[in-house]
Design brief:
There is one protein chain. The chain is built from seven helices and seven strands, in the order E-H-E-E-H-E-H-E-H-E-H-H-H-E. By secondary structure, it is an alpha/beta fold. A seven-stranded parallel beta sheet has the order 3-2-1-4-5-6-7, with helices on both faces. 45% of the residues are buried.
Length: 240
């Protein structure tokens, strides 16, 4: 039984689809009213109490939580000098504290059964800061550290925790009107420039990132914990 946050679009939706295709029972969550999960919870994870609502719905429906994917997050193109205290706080709550809260809510079920797998979706910007996404970069770096901490603290409880660090991915966040591409100029020109900057010559497909995440949740990765897997087309050293 898997909980996937931020799963009504993009990478999270691709993860939910792949998990269902593998036969898993899935609880999806997000701010949108509809999701593909066996259970869907409308939740704004920047709000205190929302994490407990998601975890509670999963346990009420299925009695346990086996896997957790913390995918909720997002950003806009901004300059470091322009960020206010409120901007930093909002980014912290969305991109880092949401994962802390949902993990905290899911851990009792995993610890009780001495088994569980967690994957936190970070970013290549968490490994090398993006000048255009400064607050996001800092929070995603924090998520990498948090992932390692959870892995170390709960390993003896049979719980694995890993992080995935995608590069630019062809999701609504980049492609939609007003998205990250358009915020930087002509949409098609920006996307072409971003793609050309990848050694593989393109943005990732959401399904490619989902495949890495689902592998890390699976028993095939039973000896993998505390890792930060890059899924960025080889571009972690490139500032986006």
């Amino acid at each position: 039984m898997c909980v996937v946050t931020g799963s009504t679009a993009g990478i999270g939706l691709a993860v939910a689809r792949l998990l269902k295709a593998e036969g898993a029972r899935v609880v999806t969550s997000g701010r949108r009213d509809e999701g593909i999960g066996d259970v869907h919870v409308v939740a704004d994870l920047t709000r205190a109490g929302a994490a407990e609502e998601v975890a509670g719905a999963a346990i009420a429906a299925f009695g346990q939580i086996d896997c957790l994917v913390n995918n909720a997050g997002g950003t806009n193109i901004r300059k470091l000098d322009d960020l206010t205290d409120d901007d930093w706080q909002a980014s912290f709550e969305l991109n880092l504290l949401s994962a802390v809260r949902v993990t905290r809510a899911a851990l009792p079920s995993m610890r009780e059964r001495k088994r569980g797998a967690i994957v936190n979706v970070s970013s290549s910007a968490g490994k090398r800061p993006s000048l255009r996404m400064p607050d996001y970069s800092v929070m995603k770096a924090g998520l990498l550290s948090y992932s390692r901490l959870v892995a170390d603290v709960y390993a003896r409880d049979g719980i694995r925790c890993n992080a995935v660090a995608p590069g630019p991915t062809a999701t609504e966040a980049w492609l939609a009107p007003g998205g990250l591409a358009e915020q930087q100029g002509d949409r098609d020109e920006v996307l072409a420039q971003v793609a050309a900057g990848r050694p593989l010559g393109r943005l990732a497909r959401p399904e490619e990132i989902a495949a890495v995440i689902v592998f890390l949740l699976s028993d095939q990765a039973s000896y993998v914990t505390g890792a930060a897997w890059s899924a960025d087309g080889g571009t972690v050293s490139i500032i986006i």
